[in-house]
Amino acid sequence: MGIEFRGVSKTYADGTVAVTDFSCTVPSHSTLALVGSSGSGKTTLMRMVNRMVDPSAGTVLIDERDVRELDKVALRRSIGYVPQAGGLLPHRRVVDNVATVPVLTGTSRRTARADALDLLARVGLDPALGRRFPSQLSGGQQQRVAVARALAADPHILLMDEPFGAVDPIVRRDLQDQLAELQAELGKTIVLVTHDIDEAFRLGDQVVILRTGGVVAQTGTPQQILAEPADDFVRDFVGADRAERRLTTTEVDGRRIVVDGDGRPVGVLA
Amino acid sequence: MSLFGDALAWILDGGHWGGPTGIDTRLWQHLAVTFAAVALAAAVAIPLGVLIGHTGRGRLVVVATAGAVRAVPTLGLLTLLGLWLGIGLTAPLLALVVLAFPSLLAGAYAGVESADRGAVDAARSLGMSEWQLVLRVELPLGAAVVIGGLRAATLQVVATATLAAYLSDTGLGRYLFAGLKSRDYPQMLAGALLVAALALLLDVALAFVQRACRGPAPLAPSDAAPEAAPAKG
């Protein structure tokens, strides 16, 4: 399923401009990473897809259909959603959290639970954890549960709102790798919101860098953005001038070693 | 014997049990009046509180009104209602409903509001309808606070239900009024003790219900599973 933002803007009731005339197409089976600091409207944009926010102007289309023609509740059930910091239902066991949407759409609880246990294994969790309550899991485990929950109804579209923002860097890396692995296998259409440019580069096929007020600073593949930052804002944001992005090679004992701007070795040239 | 001992002896006297004016009958009447008043008040206050808590609208108006209602003296209201409605159970019941209302309302909206906003937002994003949000997320998460309101209201009503006897031949309050009129202080104190015991009993019972609603306690860190699990699909 493809998603198209067609000239969308959003001004909130208090006058805050979150998004200004944004247009972008997300082809099916690809990942769009919306990246920007807070106040850049990236979450607002993502929430327009499942109508958690309705644009003040412009339209959002899924497979050429204006989402405003669709029933909100049915639309949301057809789209996977991974909220910030898990957003699991604290009073339900992990397995029932994962089974939430299938149960809402009428799958029997027994079937939904059995499927949920398979999904837990799929996101790298021991299915035995299904019996626990969310508060009895670590932050990283809760995020995996949230991903499993988003996949439970086998949606074509996944929305992810800073899904790994609340976990420590090592776990985050692990979760990103797992998501990339899952995506290679499942080929969902993903809109990912993040403030972490490295996460955007690692997971996004297409990256949109946003300034305050939801103005696009640059759109492109990670390669394009890194190779040709549109302006100083983007250059600064992606850290193109940062020492760890400026790599050079040097020869040691006949092997080519890659070093960063500070002269620290980061790898061997294959 | 002391007054307190006399009162206990009065309660334990088998002659005061059984029959239309017996302690057991009065206890049941008292409970029934309490239950009826709380149930009637809850039937309006809880849906209204849930609506306010869920939508966040009308909060100021309703909270201010409920606060003002709290300040209404129940005995004064009862006298007024009694003059209007006459002798019988209707006036005391209405006064008790008014007494129970603010606590129930406050508990309901505070409970619904207290539900973790992240979880509510996530549940809405997953495609729960507003009804499902209230019934499956907000009320279960806020249950302890809602029950807290019910507990406060019940305690106030069970203690004040003695006033039912002011205008009708109902409840444990009979012993207070009768004892006062006939200077039978052991009987009066006995009535007071029975009301206190009933109030304590109800409060403890509701405290247990409230505790049961608090949800699961997190495991100790040592019990938490390791970050990376071996199973991979």
CATH architecture of chain B: Orthogonal Bundle
The H-and-E topology of chain B, N to C, reads as HHHHHHHHHH
Structural class of chain A: alpha/beta
- So, the CATH homologous superfamily of the largest domain in chain A? P-loop containing nucleotide triphosphate hydrolases
Mean pLDDT of chain B: 89
Q: Provide the gyration radius of chain B in Å.
A: 23 Å
Query: Largest beta sheet of chain A, briefly?
Result: 6 strands, mixed
Poorly predicted ranges of chain B: 220-233
Mean pLDDT score of chain A: 91
What does this structure look like?
Chain B: It is found in: Cell membrane; Membrane. Chain B: Residues 27-206 form the ABC transmembrane type-1 domain. The complex is a heterodimer of chains A (270) and B (233). Chain A is α/β, with parallel strands linked by helices and 270 residues long. Chain A has helices spanning 42-49, 72-77, 94-98, 100-104, 109-122, 139-151, 169-186, 197-203, 222-227, 232-238; strands at 3-11, 17-26, 31-35, 57-62, 65-66, 79-82, 157-161, 189-194, 206-211, 215-220, 248-252, 255-259, 265-268. Chain A has two domains: 3-242, P-loop containing nucleotide triphosphate hydrolases (Rossmann fold), CATH 3.40.50.300; 243-270, no CATH class. Helix content of chain A is 33%, strand content 27%. In chain A, strands 6-7-8-3-9-10 form a six-stranded mixed beta sheet, with helices on both faces. A four-stranded antiparallel beta sheet of chain A has the order 2-1-4-5, with helices on one face. The longest helix of chain A is centred in the middle third of the chain and has 18 residues, at 169-186. The mean pLDDT of chain A is 91. Chain B has one domain (3-11, 21-215): MetI-like (MetI-like fold). Chain B has helices spanning 3-12, 23-55, 59-70, 74-85, 90-114, 117-126, 130-160, 164-167, 173-181, 185-212. The N and C termini of chain B lie far apart (80 Å). Chain A binds chain B through residues 47, 50, 52, 73-78, 81, 83-91, 100-101, 104, 118, 120-127, 129, 132-133, 135-138, 140-141, 149, 159, 171, 174, and chain B through 116, 118-119, 121-129, 132, 137, 140-141, 215-219, 223-225, 227-233.
